[in-house]
Design a protein that fits this description.
CATH superfamily: Vaccinia Virus protein VP39
Radius of gyration: 16 Å
CATH architecture: 3-Layer(aba) Sandwich
Number of helices: 8
Order of helices and strands: HHHEHEHEEHEHHEE
Number of strands: 7
Structural class: alpha/beta
C-alpha cells in the first residue's frame, strides 16, 4: 500500500476521516431516524433470537447502534472505533454498555451471541484471525459485503471476500458454518463455536 495513502487512512481504513464517514452515513439515513432501517434490525434481532435463543448479545463494530438497540434487553456490550458513533449510540443504549475501541484488540466477555455486521471488510486478516481464534462464544452473526465498487478506497473496504472465503476463514479459526440468515443483508451468515 502506498505510504501517503496509508497515512491518510481513518479508523475505518478509508481515506475519509471519521467525521466525513459519519456525515455520509447520516445522509444515507443509516441511523435511528430511518424507521425502515430500525425495522430491518428489529426483524434481524427477532430472527436471530429465534434461531439462537441467546440470552446475551455483543455487537462488534456497532456503528450507529441500531442492532444493539434492537437487542437492548439482552445487550451486553456495544463496541465501535468511532467516537462519533459511540456518542450517537449513547442516545439509544446505556453508556455503560458502550466501549469505544478496536474490538479486535480487546477482551470480549460475551459467551452467547456476538455480531459483526458490515465491519470486517474494513479489517485486515492479520487482526481478524487472532480475534476470531481467541473468541469464545456460542454463536457469531456475521455479514460483510461481497461487492467491490469504486467507493471502496474512500469507505475503507480493504478486505472484501466472497461467502466461501469468509466461511473458510471462520472455520480456520475454529467456527462452524451454521446457516445463511439473510438479515440484515442477503449475505449474512451464522456460525457456531
Amino acid at each position: 500500500m502506498n505510504k501517503s495513502l496509508n497515512a491518510e487512512r481513518n479508523s475505518f481504513n478509508g481515506t475519509w476521516n471519521d467525521a466525513k464517514c459519519f456525515e455520509h452515513e447520516m445522509k444515507l439515513s443509516i441511523n435511528m431516524d430511518n424507521q425502515g432501517y430500525v425495522s430491518m434490525f428489529e426483524n434481524t434481532a427477532k430472527k436471530i433470537r429465534e434461531i439462537t435463543n441467546a440470552k446475551s448479545f455483543t455487537d462488534c463494530g456497532g456503528g450507529m447502534g441500531v442492532y444493539a438497540y434492537a437487542m437492548r434487553d439482552i445487550l451486553n456490550k456495544y463496541y465501535d472505533l468511532s467516537p462519533l458513533h459511540c456518542e450517537y449510540a449513547s442516545k439509544y443504549i446505556p453508556k455503560e454498555k458502550i466501549i469505544q475501541g478496536d474490538f479486535t484488540t480487546l477482551k470480549i466477555d460475551e459467551k452467547e451471541l456476538v455480531s459483526s455486521i458490515e465491519v470486517m471488510e474494513h479489517i485486515e486478516d492479520e487482526k481478524l484471525i487472532p480475534f476470531l481464534t481467541n473468541l469464545e462464544c456460542k454463536y457469531f452473526h456475521f455479514s460483510s459485503t461481497p461487492h467491490k465498487t469504486d467507493f471502496d478506497v474512500e469507505w475503507g473496504h480493504i478486505n472484501i471476500k466472497q461467502e466461501n472465503e469468509w466461511i473458510k476463514l471462520f472455520e480456520d479459526c475454529g467456527f462452524k458454518y451454521h446457516s445463511n440468515v439473510d438479515l440484515p443483508t442477503t449475505w449474512s451468515l451464522l456460525f457456531t463455536k
